[in-house]
Design goal:
Layout: E1 45-47, E2 54-56, E3 61-65, E4 71-73, E5 83-86, H1 90-98, H2 101-109, H3 121-142, E6 146-148, H4 150-158, E7 164-167, H5 173-186, E8 197-198, H6 203-210, E9 217-220, H7 223-240, H8 258-273
Amino acid sequence: MRTPSNERPGLTDSNGTAPLPPARKGHRGKRPAPAGKRPAGDGPVRTCILSRDESPREGLIRLALSPDGEVLPDVRAKAPGRGAWIGVTRSELETAQAKGKLKGALARAFKGAAMTIPEDLGARIAAALERSALDRLGLESRAGHLLTGSERIETAARQGKLRALYHAADAGSDGSGKLAQAWRVGSEREGSGLRGLALPVSRTILSLALGRENVVHAGLTDAQAARRVSEALDRWLHFIGPDRVSAPCEKQSQGASALEASDAAEDEKNEGNK
């Protein structure tokens, strides 16, 4: 794979289980991927071929050509050869594809190489992003950074050890709300909007991804793990769009990451202590 020359040094996050530092400006939000106005030093930058917005590459999705010329998602950016980057939603991608704009943009990105764009490209990208996000959760689980079971998560939350909280799409609002309240109490953020994120997958799928039985809620206790998972979730949830995300809590912003809520609450707490 050719590496474009427009790469810039990235930032590193703090380690440990202390409260997370504020998110990088412009990086955590309901639409994390396009962010054409992000700070210049926020990681290697690429340009979306459709919107022309610049963004750190971890917020974009790479497309690559298979050996037979088919355009396929390369969400881990590992495929060899020239790539094309997109930061739009699935709806925007499919609209551009229907109007022929995607074909023209890809032709320019791949320098006129022979290619075939599958009709279900949007669905393939969504599936690849879902798999990548769930795989990341699975890796953090195997590394010992993830808790399941309401009692274990609540205990960690009340002890101030919780860094991120997730719920299956079919989780009950009472159970989700109870854990969110424990998180707010344990992190001394009562009255804030801190709450978990409802993932757009059922408990069955979440359980399979983590290799555990009946996973309804999951919590991360490591700050770096929370950022890694949040990054994978941000790309996925942005691409599928907030209307595809199921939230069990009435006040939860659909599509926003649990880490974003945590960072916002931490900023709110710091402002109050000034």
